């Protein structure tokens, strides 16, 4: 009878030790994952702080908008498909329109409510990538059936893939 209670106690202690090990291992794993997530979040925030763009000019004929940008930060921008362009404008019937304009590859004819890179200059280092100190011309084509109205106040917002951006008011 004494030996049976010793075996039961040993099994109970073993189960308690195993449960403690499993719980502590899970806790350490969760702390490691949380630490990695925090580090990645800080890296993304630092990259965002180093990214700056400045809208330097806007011209439009009502359908096509030519937007000039300058990369005043230190981060290269090359994932144009992840950039957001939002245009808020008044059409010829004085109705306010808000349009999110997605990126379109440069090798094709520009469709309505899309944008593409018109030029990057000087583009000596990393051709096709918007490096620090370079200027980029974006061609934005709105819908030809709903153009910007004459003498209207309009607004455009450009945001980089990591969240930095700039906006400007413009007139037609």
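^ Assign residues to that structure.
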């Amino acid at each position: 009878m004494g030996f049976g209670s010793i075996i039961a106690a040993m099994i109970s202690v073993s189960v308690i030790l195993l449960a403690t090990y499993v719980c502590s291992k899970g806790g350490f794993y969760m702390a490691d994952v949380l630490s990695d997530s925090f580090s990645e979040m800080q890296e993304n925030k630092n990259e965002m702080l180093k990214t700056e763009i400045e809208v330097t000019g806007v011209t439009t004929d009502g359908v096509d908008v030519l937007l000039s940008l300058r990369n005043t930060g230190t981060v290269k921008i090359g994932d144009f498909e992840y950039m957001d362009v939002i245009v808020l404008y008044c059409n010829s019937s004085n109705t306010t329109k808000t349009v999110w304009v997605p990126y379109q590859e440069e090798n094709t004819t520009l469709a309505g409510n899309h944008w593409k890179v018109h030029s990057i200059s000087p583009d000596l280092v990393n051709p096709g990538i918007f490096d620090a100190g370079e200027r980029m011309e974006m061609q934005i084509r709105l819908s030809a059936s709903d153009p910007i109205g004459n003498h209207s106040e309009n607004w455009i917002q450009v945001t980089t893939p990591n969240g930095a951006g700039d906006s400007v008011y413009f007139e037609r």
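The chain has a mean pLDDT of 91.
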